[in-house]
Amino acid sequence: MKLAFVLCCIAMPMGAAPRGVEILWDRYGVAHVYARDREGMFYGYGYAQMQSHANLILKLYGESRGRGAEYWGPKGLELDKWVRLNGVPERAEQWYKMQTPEFKKYLVAFANGMNEYAKRHPEAIGEEYKQVLPIEPVDSLMHVHRIVHFSYVSSQLRVRAAATGRGAEPGGIGSNAWAIMPKKSADGTPMMLMNPHLPWQDWYTYYEIHLNGPGANLYGASQIGFPVLRFVFSDYLGFTQTVNSMDASDLYKITPDGDGYRFDGEKKAYEKSQVTLKVKGGADVVMEVKKTVHGPVVWDQDGKVLAMRTGGLDRPFLLEQYWKMAIAKNFAEYQAQVARLEVPTFNITYADKDGHVMYLFNGTMPKRKSGDAAYWAGVVPGDTSKTLWNSYHTYAELPKVIDPPVGWVQNTNDPPWTATLPTLDPKAFPAYTTASEVSMRSRSSLRMLSKDEKLSFDKLVEYKHSTHFETADRMLDDLLAAAPDSAAKRVLAAWDRNADNASTGAVLFETLMRGFRPEWKVAADLKDPLKTPMGLKNAAAGVEALAKAAAEVEKSFGRLDISYGDVNRFKYRGADFPGNGGDGALGAFRVIRFGPNRAPVHGDTFVAAIEWLKSGPRGRVLVSYGNSSQPGTKHDVDQLPLLSQKKLREVWRLRKDVEKNVESKYVF
């Protein structure tokens, strides 16, 4: 017995390649990993990620170690300070030791696969990134911790905005999610839409993968460097995520008292330590870390001291939870995993082949003694225990929807109240749960889901690509009725109210809405998001704004009816195609944000539409910016034409279909 245990534990030490692992690369650069055991599957996953994104992964792992400045110079110092101030490397090391023996083996295998690629293909890796090697098993956990807890839950931007009053959280980090029950489906089949929207760069980058091992046939995507899938479907289930509005992080105003601070009428001493940051080409930087009862001091300038408390730092098993959610074989198993609440944020939307659907306002939501969402979104007093929370709401206490009568759930980053219709009642939950605003994108989502008594798979894919501006339907008729005859009025009257490649009027409308904020005749009512808000109370102001917008468009483009795709282009890594998609704030369901140079900077990233047929799941997918970023790859822009044409690719999930589309094959 003892000998068998030892053999099990040393079966795959660091650096050893497992037997029986195959990677079949299809013609879109998607890796299909086949392995005899799960360790081999994780090994192949790590190897594949490196082949597609080695330079980016090494950059991100170096930054997540808090050593960016050490590797690449002073430009990385600010991020290093944030990572080390919040104890990311140290906590990740502790968390790694706490992982179960089984899951720890998977992290080891994932790192082994990455290192094996680097060993076999040193010529493919940029010289400046090789210094990060070798990758350690803790690196993926460390990176996930940095991204999830200190980019999503707690961010530098929020701290800076709160401290200075300038700037705010970046808008548009969002996603769409649908889960459809058989009763709503035209063919009686469960369906799902996965549609994250994030910036087209850096750690936001998604990676599409197909993983096959014992008890697992998983297809989906995750952000680069993650060892598990965050967007996934299997023979049985699928789940997707959207950034949610849960406040799982708080900023506290600290009242200094000499060399300490005030708390409940007494002076308390800071917990102090020092961190030395190495800087390539420069002197070391010694950073003092001060902690209060709330957490680390994240701002100490101009007489203002702020400390930060981040939820979920006592829950080290988020990766294992994701993994076990993905391999669940029934709804009860899935719920048992998601109820652990190891994942500190994100809405999670679910569907399965038995017809269950579920939406969960997921996260480590602090139990607070008072206050509403607006109060906790600001800076709260840090000199009293009345604002100090020490526990979280349970799974049973969080907003959720399971198998609603209407037959669907959805989320577009809005608060949970519009997850289905009729809407949920915010009064059934604490006032600090979240705000109640409903975006135009959510109203567009609700309208499309309510439009058809039965929804077909093809119609779901069509709706996914909707660029229709919901805001235009709510106010444009009143504006045109009030406006005198003009070229601008005629262009908007003829416009299809979409932001498609050939749409004329969309550029003018977007320009108008940058300078005009509607006052509604019928105010927004959470109980009736399909019909409210509606109509213009200030049509005259809209007419004036339209004249200004027309002059701006005429000056910039020489004509008012210029096609949307002639102005906004899918220009990326040398490729250039007509653009479509618009601002979610205006109600476009297909979100694409174009930057100052009219090239995409944010929006549709990984997209998957799935239907569970009796024969098994089928899907259509796309990775807008391609599935590789390595120099010389041909899979960086090969999907842009499909993006421009509003098309998705068929998922090749059965081995016979994969083999028909193989570009290359690697066998260990």
List keywords for this structure.
Penicillin amidase (Acylase) alpha subunit, N-terminal domain; alpha+beta; Penicillin Amidohydrolase, domain 1; 668 residues; 31 strands; 10-stranded mixed β-sheet; Penicillin G acylase, beta-roll domain; disordered N terminus; 8-stranded antiparallel β-sheet; 24% strand; 20 helices; 32% helix
Mean pLDDT: 95
Total helical elements: 20
Which residues form runs of ≥5 with pLDDT under 50?
1-13
Report on the biggest sheet. 10 strands, mixed
Number of strands: 31
CATH topology of one domain: Penicillin Amidohydrolase, domain 1
Instruction: Tell me the radius of gyration.
Output: 26 Å
Shape: globular
Binned strand content: 15-25%
**What is the CATH C level class of one domain, in words?**
Mainly Alpha
Category by helix and strand content: alpha+beta
Q: State the end-to-end distance.
A: 30 Å
Identify the CATH homologous superfamily of one domain: Penicillin Amidohydrolase, domain 1
From the 3D coordinates, which CATH architecture of one domain would you assign?
A: Orthogonal Bundle
Helix content: 25-40%
Spatial order of strands in the largest sheet? 20-18-17-8-7-6-5-2-1-31
Q: What would you say this structure looks like, in words?
A:
There is one protein chain. The protein has 668 residues and is of the alpha+beta class. The chain is built from 20 helices and 31 strands. Among the domains are: 20-170 and 651-667, Penicillin Amidohydrolase, domain 1; 249-310, Aminohydrolase, N-terminal nucleophile (Ntn) domain, beta-sheet knob region (Penicillin G acylase, beta-roll domain), CATH 2.30.120; 470-580, Orthogonal Bundle (Penicillin amidase (Acylase) alpha subunit, N-terminal domain). Helix 2 (38-64) packs across helix 6 (101-120). The longest helix is centred in the N-terminal third of the chain and has 27 residues, at 38-64. Mean pLDDT is 95; it is low at 1-13.
